[in-house]
Amino acid sequence: MNKPLSLIAATCLVIVVSFIGPFCPRVVEANVRVREPRKEALAIDSKALESWLNPFFAEEMKKQHLPGIAFVLVKDGRVVLSKGYGWANVEQQIPVTPERTVFRIGSITKVFTAMALMQLADRKKITLQDEVNKYLDSPKVDQRYNEPVRFWHLLTHTAGFDQTGLGRQVPKPEERKSLAEFLEAQLIRVRPPGQVSCYDTYGITLAGYLIERISGFSYAAYLKQNVFAPLGMTRANVETPQTLLGDRAVGYGYQDGRFVPQPYEYYVTLPASSIDATAHDMAQWMIALLGNGRTKSGRFLSAAAARQIKEPQFTNYPGFPGFAYGFWEDLRNGQRAIHHGGDMLGFTTEMYLLPEHNLGFFVAYNRNQEAGGGPTNLRELLTEKLMNQWFPNHDSPKKHLAVAPLSIDTTVFAGKYANNLYCHTCFDGQGWGWGLTSLRSGGPGLLIGSRRWLAVEPLVFQEENGSRRIAFRADKSGEITHLIVGNTVHEKLGERLLTEVLGVGWQKRPMAPLTARVYRDTEQWKKAAAAYAAIIDQRPNDGRANYYLGFCWLNAGEAARALAAFARARELKQWPQFTAYYTAVALARKGNKEQALDALEEAINLGFSDHELLRRDANLNSLRDEPRFKALLKP
User: Fold this and answer.
1) Cα–Cα distance, 22 to 27 (Å, whole number)
2) Which of 3, 10, 100, 434 could crosslink 418 through cysteines, CB 3.0-4.6 Å?
């Protein structure tokens, strides 16, 4: 559930270095791009690796409450180490075995979809520069922008589709729409293709549908015949068949000291999420790709096509990690890697390849934080520790700047930025939400968020006393449009964004939900209130819109209007505890002390528990000497 704006607007979010997930891309603060990958020979001793992994996995399984792990590492065309740890099924005490245990690999599925599309290009069925509409009857991509969507946009997450987060799952497989039916309502364009990346569930699902259109096979059948079988992935499937259910790992959450089994998720977006495979299967895949398409039975792809998949194809800023076809790039310890992770209910996976060293590993474990039990970072920790062991001497930016920061005006960078992986066209409470990053100028050459950033180039900043970097993009007029954090893009909130997404004349469409959200999060309260009022004209029973209308009027100093909106939100049973709290704030501003105290007591009775906000909220200063208010502050 989205938290009310009051708790969001007060938070200045950190620009973090992390690997994230649902649907599960990584956010990595950028080091400078490696100029020349290290090509020194890297020898890996299987026994030494196992002797290190055994205690490492044992400790982390206990610490992070992980029931089972499968791990496989390949190098130079062979499996160096393949091992299972813990339980695939806790209740039945079935151990994890790399050859038998089937894991849900989640979003790593996207890499297989990209490879299948590359295979069609390799077989001269398409070219990557072809417009996708050439192969579509319905649905078709609309012609809103001059530049059409091409196949290479789908493979690099640059097609420009809105990531609504809607309609992806069904309770039962028989309720699943066809890919064509699903995409009919989901191919919503919000930016021209090829300009910036945005981790794209809908674009890769379209790629899967195009595979069906071009090949004449269903997506699942095409992969089974043209990918899994040639590679010797004997237990890999788009969703586990009945014959292998006994070997499928159970996905778990962790609550109250016990593992809690999770239901199997059925996705409509099969090409983005739904392959199940063993660690042994994944080893065959990694060996084939690292070996430039060669398998034991012959060539799966031409060497040129296999190399092309692994090569850099798009970056949002020079020197920052970008994308290969289907893969995310990682620039770490002086090396270039390509990788992808996956998160499903009860499952977490990671595949990490170092093409220059003909090396890759895959790890899967049957717990995921979405199912309860808190975050798990085994895959990130494993990657970090292995890379530090293999490449201890790295050439990332210096910890401390050798020269003074550039003395440039940083006020142009100040503002609020939203990670572009959010639903631009959804009403509040629907679809994927956004996370905000706030930056303010600290003077020439200095930006301040939750960290301090020093200008090292006109559009690049480095963390003070650190090595992480961020970058900015500007339009032709010099206006800052985007913040780049590793592979990810954050849109600067403002009217320029509204023009880009909603089109020229967006001012005549005040009910557009994005208009209200942009004005709300940039604290243009009266404009935001007008936008929410227009939404309510069209959707009078929208509880969230009424709540936010009240919140915007309250911040605009219009307490009476705020009270009217909050009263309607309460009728619609929208966030009753927060509605009651801000009703109390509005009443306190109007000088109605007794009514304000009544509303505060009601808020607490309804579950409002932010006592720190009660203590610091200046709007309640007129109540602080009241005995009833003091009683509310008691533990």
Assistant:
1) 13
2) 434
